[in-house]
């Protein structure tokens, strides 16, 4: 059982990285082999919309005009049984780096031969060799748990798109809200990003997430992607189970 973590943070020692490492520790207790990739360490160029990937419907991983590190990462996804996506919240969303990665991955891991609501030419998975599990961890810089619905658009976006790319199911997610060890004064709020801390509870939740994620994979309780999964993702609110 292999679990791959794709980390969209720009800080290799920040809160997102810490929680991903905790999740992978939890997964390892179930017997998972884990790998943690910081996307910032790779050459991942912007999509130029050349449509080379889109025009190739036969390849398992479609070609690209860019000769960068994307192909190597996509091959790692193919080998994985589960993929954990991690990102800080940037402007209510995932980081630009994570978005660029997903944009580049789209038609390289999906072919335009599907149909949704009668619309043909929609993406459907290329990696049909096995179903894979997905999970996510996002971290907030200053927004508390009770305001997640106004801040975290990224988790829902991942839930809607990742299952199609990996041919599987989204299993679990964590939103690590901002925690401050003391009540901030009015003059401190403009520095909130620098004053937040990870709690022991959040780290325990990440560890548990990893165990739950690996257990679902180990139990063989992951099905392949289907359109119904996408429709459910549009309708369901974020949750952590």
Explain what the structure shows.
With 241 residues, this protein is an alpha/beta fold. Helices cover 36% and strands 21% of the residues. The protein has eight helices and seven strands. It has helices at 15-28, 70-79, 96-109, 148-151, 154-166, 192-195, 200-218, 227-235, and strands at 2-7, 33-38, 82-88, 110-116, 119-125, 132-139, 168-176. The strands form two sheets. Strands 2-1-3-6-7 form a five-stranded parallel β-sheet, sandwiched between helices. It has a two-stranded antiparallel sheet with strand order 4-5. The model has no long low-confidence stretch (mean pLDDT 89).
Question: How are the SSEs ordered, and which strands pair?
Answer:
Layout: E1 2-7, H1 15-28, E2 33-38, H2 70-79, E3 82-88, H3 96-109, E4 110-116, E5 119-125, E6 132-139, H4 148-151, H5 154-166, E7 168-176, H6 192-195, H7 200-218, H8 227-235
Parallel strand pairs: 1-2, 1-3, 3-6, 6-7
Antiparallel strand pairs: 4-5
């Amino acid at each position: 059982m292999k679990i791959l973590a794709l980390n969209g943070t720009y800080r290799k020692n920040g809160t997102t990285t810490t929680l991903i490492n905790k999740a992978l520790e939890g997964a390892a207790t179930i017997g998972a082999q884990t790998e943690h990739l910081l996307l910032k360490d790779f050459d991942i160029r912007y999509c130029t919309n050349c449509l080379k990937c889109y025009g190739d419907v036969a390849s398992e991983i479609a070609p690209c005009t860019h000769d960068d590190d994307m192909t190597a990462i996509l091959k790692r996804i193919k080998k994985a049984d589960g993929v954990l996506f991690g990102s800080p919240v940037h402007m209510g969303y995932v980081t630009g780096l994570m978005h660029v990665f997903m944009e580049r991955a789209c038609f390289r891991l999906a072919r335009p031969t599907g149909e949704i609501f009668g619309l043909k030419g929609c993406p459907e998975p290329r990696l049909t060799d096995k179903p894979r599990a997905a999970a996510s961890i996002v971290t907030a810089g200053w927004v508390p748990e009770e305001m997640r619905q106004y801040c975290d658009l990224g988790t829902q976006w991942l839930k809607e798109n990742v299952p199609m790319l990996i041919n599987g199911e989204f299993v679990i997610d964590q939103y690590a809200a901002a925690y401050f060890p003391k009540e901030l004064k009015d003059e401190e709020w403009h520095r909130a990003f620098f004053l937040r801390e990870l709690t022991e509870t959040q780290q325990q939740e990440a560890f548990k997430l990893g165990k739950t994620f690996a257990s679902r994979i180990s139990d063989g309780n992951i099905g392949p992607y289907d359109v119904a999964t996408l429709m459910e993702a549009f309708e369901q609110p974020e949750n952590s189970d």
